[in-house]
Specification:
- By secondary structure, this protein is an alpha/beta fold.
- It has 2 domains: 137 residues, Rossmann fold, CATH 3.40.50.10860; 81 residues, no CATH class.
- 38% of the residues lie in helices and 17% in strands.
- It is built from 7 helices and 5 strands, in the order E-E-E-H-E-H-E-H-H-H-H-H.
- Helix 2 packs across helix 3.
- It is globular.
């Protein structure tokens, strides 16, 4: 039973753009298993999102929850799109339509989404708004990773980086080395961006107290990320990708 997902959903996401043109995007949501409780997993927006990838990520999420004895099961979702092509209003409509299509199963107690590649706390706020409109009142438990102003958790932005730091500490200690004698390479500029900013001897309470200071990329980092993304897009355009 664990070799195949329990449920796979493919939805069409039509979008009327500001120039009057119509596009139809494809969205996915896979629930690998929900025998221990609600499924849990991120929503990613990327050009290479496909059903096989979403299946694999949902399965990995299930294993992680099981190994840590968390009463959730694995799920994953996404839309095959490049959000850099769309305005903020168009992104909101894409998210709202994607959220409304699988609404009978994408809800508290059944399936709880979270941010992933291409999505953030604003995306989760839009998903919460879409579901709340259908119920007539605010439902904060429909998604995690929301802004703190509407029920999000403190420390959520740096949580992944904090987990990486803990794993590095355990690895260093298990190999009888010291942090000063070890070097660590962090690949990527997503959540891992915060790893280098978290001191290894800081307590969880200190993380939370200083969360606002260490959890947000600086303007320089943001500009560098946008510049790199633009260069990659130009290379792909020249190569016809």
């Amino acid at each position: 039973m664990l070799a195949t997902p329990r449920r796979e959903t493919i939805v069409s996401v039509p979008l009327r753009r500001y120039d009057g043109s119509l596009e139809v995007l494809t969205g996915f949501r896979v629930q690998h298993n929900y025998s221990r409780g609600p499924t849990k997993g991120g929503i990613r927006y990327h050009l290479v999102v496909e059903l096989d990838e979403v299946r694999a990520l949902a399965m990995w999420m299930a294993w992680k929850c099981t190994l840590l004895d968390i009463p959730y099961r694995g799920a994953k979702g996404g839309i095959a799109s490049d959000l850099r092509r769309y305005s903020l209003g168009e992104r909101e409509r894409i998210t709202g339509r994607y959220s409304s299509e699988p609404m009978p199963i994408l809800c508290p107690g059944k399936d709880i989404p979270a941010p992933d590649i291409g999505s953030d706390e604003q995306t989760m706020a839009w998903m919460m708004d879409t579901y709340s409109v259908s119920t007539g009142h605010a439902i904060q438990g429909v998604a995690t990773g929301k802004p703190r102003s509407i029920g999000g958790s403190r420390g959520r932005i740096i949580a992944i980086a904090q987990g990486v730091v803990h794993c590095v500490k355990v690895t260093v200690e298990s190999t009888h080395r010291t942090p000063r004698s070890a070097s660590v390479a962090v690949q990527g500029v997503g959540s891992g961006l915060h790893v280098g900013r978290l001191p290894t001897r800081t307590s969880n309470q200190e993380y939370l107290r200083r969360g606002r200071r260490v959890s947000r990329p600086t303007r320089t980092h943001t500009a560098q990320r946008r510049t790199r993304a633009g260069r990659v897009a130009q290379v792909h355009q020249k190569r016809g990708l």
